[in-house]
Amino acid sequence: MTTALLSTAEELHARVRHGRRAVVMTMGALHEGHATLIRTAREIAGPDGEVVVTVFVNPLQFGAGEDLDRYPRTLDADLELAGRAGADAVFAPSVDEVYPGGEPQVRITAGPMGDRLEGASRPGHFDGMLTVVAKLLHLTRPDAALFGQKDAQQLALIRRMVRDLNFGVEIVAVPTVREEDGLALSSRNRYLAPDERRTALALSHALFAGRDRHAAQEALRARAREVPSTHARAEALSAIGESRAAADAHAVATAAPGGPAAVRAAARQVLDEAARLDPPLKLDYLALVDPADFTEIGDDFTGEAVLAVAARVGSTRLIDNLPLTFGAAS
Predict the structure, then answer these.
(1) Would residue 138 show up in a list of annotated catalytic residues for this protein?
(2) CA distances from 85 to 36, 245, 319 (A)
């Protein structure tokens, strides 16, 4: 497959469309995580459809002191990777093409969700992100747009924008891709020195610790529900040596703190230990939130949640998250 390189909307709109168009939006520096998005887009578009990958480093979503100038720009390598993964075209517009006449006076506002977590750490970031996503959706005119779950808050805001403003496009979430050691794939990983990378593994290890604590709690609660509290049943359990297991299950099921509090505690222990490493991990936030609005969940919460973390190692800022399900919905 020959992958076309396009730099203007006019070139893109001139392409004859057959079937569905699926778009993967990136800022370049493509890696295996992007390749997974592109392969999934290929499946959605089908053999008669079209996959378009956008490559655009959006200045609106970089704040003061962030890495706009040093953000990697590797268009030739991006074009090659996109082609191998199944893209029909790479749309790599200039800043002037996306923002003719300078920065736009009218922008998308992320609302209250955009002020939390990543938004609190990077003021204005989500307004800039939503503005460029809206513009690229209009420029590329896709039937479906794919985004990675690693940027969970970004994904939630894009879905909210599409729903609130009646964009006629399907938003598809693709699970996070990780390296063999568990580190979530990111274009910023290339900034990490070897010792920094070892420290950075604490992000995924903290999430895994929270996930494992949650899984143990849910398994023990399920077992507790299966063990009646009658005297006859207790005697029967005792006779076969299971009374301790039943008691442990009941204890864990009713212990405090449990649920979300225990998940947070398990993850934070790993992060606290990483803060004492050399180089240290500098935690920005650890949060366990409702994906509908990214507010912290309470101990009585049931349903889908996101365990999210952000931290700096050296000069590199990294984020990661895992989905969890609590209570009756699990």
Answers:
(1) no
(2) 8, 50, 25
Question: Which of 151-165, 187-201, 256-270, 286-300 is the least confident region?
Answer: 256-270
Task: Return the closest-CA partner of residue 287 out of 203, 161, 179.
Answer: 203
Residue range 271-284, pLDDT digits in tens? 999 999 999 999 99
Return the amino acid letter for 158. Answer: I
Using a CB cutoff of 8 Å and minimum separation of 24, what contacts does 156-163 make?
156/113, 156/291, 156/292, 156/294, 157/110, 157/113, 157/114, 157/126, 157/129, 157/130, 158/130, 158/133, 160/111, 160/113, 161/108, 161/130, 161/133, 161/134
Q: Record the tokens describing residue 18, joined without a space.
A: 């057959």
Annotated active-site residue in 31, 34, 205, 214: 34
Cα 148 to the center of its chain, rounded Å = 6
